[in-house]
What does this fold into?
Amino acid sequence: MHHGAALAQESGESALAEAVVSGDLGRLSERMRSLCTYALKLTLHPWDMRNEDLDPLRRLGMTDRDIVDANQVVAYFNYVNRVADGLGVELEPYWPEDVRAKRTYPLRDRAT
It folds into this structure.
């Protein structure tokens, strides 16, 4: 929630943020879709990660360093979100109400 709102604000593309948080990745570029697929699996099922999960990223020309960087970003945001959610942190009042509103997404259903 917190970072999705930031992505929408910083990128100026609310559709990108919605695609990412909703799991509707079909509208993204192949590179972004592959990165998001990797991030989703790493986030929701990290114990199931295999070396083969890196193949789509490598086929798109990503180096091992690129993949490590992506891994670190995913891990960092997972950590920060868990800290914020676990402590009940809310977005600052200057965020527009429609961005601060609690939403649910089909993506969360994948975790169960």
In short: The longest helix spans residues 64-86. The chain has a mean pLDDT of 81.
